[in-house]
């Protein structure tokens, strides 16, 4: 039985990129593409769990605000769709870029708030769920760094992803169109004093910063990719 043929495809070419743009070993990237349907299935399972996890928040918000509530599940759905599209020969730069933004932003924001508000999370969820959420979200960051093999992050796709995650940021923390803000629940009221500020401001500060970081990474990776292609020799690392 051809496992690569049934579970994935031979990986796309790998550009010679700086370590910050392609931090994963080539062997690990190759495995991800050769077993891409396994990764798609894992992300779809994570998406389903995520929607279940947000079930109470859905009930507290009007239907028109629902797209802005399940941030992490949408990020894992984006990467599942991006990888599946590549696997069937219909790669989408837009899906890949949305997935890159979402998996880096939410993959880092969740561990950030888990650490910042650890007493409340541990009291509410227990150590097992705490550890699962922490590790699974860091894994989202890892998988985001295989996407440079299937997209060079064209400007149009970056604009779309930046627009979506900026609007989502506004809905989550600042100016919801209807009702209340839609950010992921944390175990303290937003107005609770925390260090020199409040819980809401600590969470929002992380979200703002982590919206900017993938933007710079995507554009930086695009520049590095175009330079590598223009170089006289481009040996794959």
Automatic annotation (TrEMBL):
Provenance organism: Halorubrum tibetense
Transmembrane segments: 35-54, 66-88, 100-122, 128-146, 158-179, 199-219
PANTHER family assigned to the protein according to its UniProt record, in alphabetical order: DUF1405 DOMAIN-CONTAINING PROTEIN (PTHR40042:SF1), HYPOTHETICAL MEMBRANE SPANNING PROTEIN (PTHR40042)
InterPro entries attached to this UniProt entry: DUF1405 (IPR009845)
Coiled coil (residue ranges): none
Any Pfam family hit: DUF1405
Keyword vocabulary terms for this entry: Membrane, Transmembrane, Transmembrane helix
Entry protein name: DUF1405 domain-containing protein
């Amino acid at each position: 039985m051809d496992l690569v043929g049934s579970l994935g495809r031979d990986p796309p070419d790998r550009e010679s990129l700086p370590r910050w743009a392609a931090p994963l070993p080539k062997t690990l990237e190759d495995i991800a593409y050769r077993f891409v349907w396994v990764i798609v299935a894992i992300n779809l399972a994570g998406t389903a769990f995520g929607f279940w996890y947000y079930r109470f928040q859905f009930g507290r918000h009007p239907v028109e605000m629902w797209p802005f509530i399940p941030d992490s599940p949408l990020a894992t759905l984006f990467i599942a769709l991006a990888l599946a599209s590549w696997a069937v020969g219909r790669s989408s730069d837009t899906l890949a870029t949305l997935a890159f933004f979402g998996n880096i932003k939410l993959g880092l924001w969740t561990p950030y708030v888990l650490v910042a508000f650890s007493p409340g999370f541990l009291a509410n969820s227990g150590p097992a769920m705490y550890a699962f959420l922490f590790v699974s979200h860091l894994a989202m960051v890892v998988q985001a760094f295989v996407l440079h093999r299937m997209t060079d992050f064209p400007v149009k796709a970056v604009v779309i992803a930046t627009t979506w995650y900026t609007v989502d940021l506004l809905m989550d923390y600042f100016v919801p169109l209807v009702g209340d803000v839609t950010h992921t629940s944390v175990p303290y009221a937003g107005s609770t004093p925390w260090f020199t500020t409040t819980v809401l401001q600590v969470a929002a500060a992380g979200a703002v910063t982590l919206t900017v970081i993938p933007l710079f990474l995507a554009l930086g990776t695009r520049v590095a990719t175009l330079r590598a292609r223009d170089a006289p020799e481009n040996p794959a690392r």
